[in-house]
Design goal:
The chain is of the alpha/beta class. It has ten helices and 15 strands. Strands 3, 4, 5, 6, 7, 14 and 15 form a seven-stranded mixed beta sheet that branches. A six-stranded parallel beta sheet has the order 10-9-8-11-12-13, with helices on both faces. The protein has a two-stranded antiparallel ribbon with strand order 1-2.
Length: about 300
C-alpha cells in the first residue's frame, strides 16, 4: 500500500484527502518509483476545481504531473534504469502526489542535481523543451515568452538564450530584474504590450504563451501570423488559429533529457521553491489559489 492524496470529487481544496492506495507492479515499459518529492503545478489546481476536462480525472484520482525518487521495480522491456537508481519522472496520466508512482517517462537524476530540482523539472522542462522544438527557435532569432517567470517560461527563456536567441519576456512590472537575470529583456503585460515589444525588438520570430493570461492577439501580430505562435493553455487558441501544444509521446524522452542536461551543466536555474509535507496538499492548493504563495511548491513524502 502507498499513501496518496486523492480527489474525492471536484471543487475547493478540501476535496483532496490523504488515503491508502494500491499502486501495484509496473507493467511493460513502466517503472515504479518511491517518491521523495512531487511537484505541484497550476494545472493540478484547475483539474481539482473541475475546470479542465482534458484529463481522465475523477474521484479517486491522484494528482501530480511530476516527481523524483528512487526506482524500486521495473517492468518488462525496461533496460535503461535499475532498482535503486535515482530518477525524475514525468506523469502525463497523473499520480505524483503519492509515496509510490508508476511512470512511463523518466530521466536519470545525476548526483549533482538536488532532489528538489529534479522534482521541479519534469513537467515544466518537458513543456519548455518541447515547445522550443515545435517553434524551431534558432540562433539570432527573437522569441517572445508570455509568462516569462512561470515554471515553463523560466526554463524556456533560459534554453532559448542558450541557443543564442534573444528573449523578450512578458512579466509583471515588479519582476523585471528577475527576468533580466535569466538573460531576457523584460516587458510588462498590459494593453500596450504590442508597443513595448516593438520598442525593444520590432517584429519577433516566434512566440510561446506559457501563461494563458491574454496577449495572443498581439503575439500573432508581432510574429506576422500564427505559424510560429504556440500557447500551452489559452482556451481561445482554436478561435485565433494558434496551436495549443501538449505532450507528444515520441518527443517526451528527448525533451526531458535536454532539460536535465541544462540543469546538470548549471545552464538552467529553476524558480524558488518551498517544500511541505504530502499531507498538507489541500492547504497548499488553497495558498496557491489565493495568491499567498508564488514559489514552486514540492510535496515531501
Amino acid at each position: 500500500m502507498s499513501r496518496a492524496v486523492v480527489l474525492t470529487g471536484f471543487g475547493p481544496p478540501s476535496v483532496l484527502e490523504l488515503r491508502d492506495v494500491e499502486v501495484g507492479s509496473p507493467g511493460a515499459g513502466q517503472i515504479r518509483v518511491a517518491v521523495t518529492f512531487a511537484g505541484v503545478g497550476p494545472t493540478d489546481l484547475a483539474i481539482r476545481a473541475g475546470k479542465v476536462k482534458a484529463f481522465p480525472a475523477g474521484p479517486g484520482t491522484t494528482l501530480g504531473f511530476e516527481a523524483a525518487g528512487v526506482v524500486d521495480a521495473v517492468g518488462a522491456g525496461v533496460n535503461d534504469v535499475v532498482p535503486g537508481q535515482e530518477v525524475a519522472v514525468f506523469l502525463p496520466r497523473l499520480g505524483g502526489y503519492a509515496d509510490h508512482v508508476l511512470a512511463e517517462y523518466w530521466v536519470p537524476k545525476p548526483a549533482s542535481v538536488t532532489w528538489e530540482d529534479a522534482a521541479a523539472l519534469p513537467a515544466s522542462g518537458e513543456a519548455a523543451a518541447r515547445t522550443l522544438a515545435e517553434l524551431q527557435v534558432r540562433e539570432a532569432e527573437t522569441l517572445l515568452v508570455l509568462g516569462g517567470l512561470g515554471s515553463v517560461g523560466t526554463i524556456a527563456a533560459q534554453l532559448a538564450v542558450g541557443r543564442g536567441a534573444q528573449v523578450i519576456s512578458a512579466v509583471r512590472a515588479t519582476d523585471f530584474a528577475a527576468a533580466e537575470k535569466l538573460g531576457a529583456v523584460p516587458v510588462a503585460y498590459g494593453p500596450d504590450l504590442l508597443d513595448q515589444v516593438r520598442a525593444k525588438a520590432g517584429r519577433v520570430d516566434a512566440v510561446l504563451d506559457a501563461a494563458g493570461r491574454g496577449g495572443l492577439e498581439a503575439a500573432v501580430e508581432l510574429a506576422g501570423g500564427t505559424e510560429r505562435v504556440i500557447t500551452l493553455s489559452d482556451h481561445r487558441a482554436a478561435q485565433l488559429g494558434v496551436r495549443l501544444s501538449g505532450p507528444d509521446p515520441l518527443r517526451v524522452p528527448a525533451a526531458l533529457a535536454e532539460a536535465m542536461a541544462a540543469l546538470t551543466t548549471r545552464a538552467l536555474t529553476l524558480r524558488p521553491r518551498i517544500t511541505v509535507p504530502l499531507a498538507q496538499a489541500a492547504d497548499v492548493h488553497a495558498r496557491l489559489e489565493d495568491g499567498r504563495v508564488r514559489a514552486k511548491v514540492l510535496l515531501a513524502t
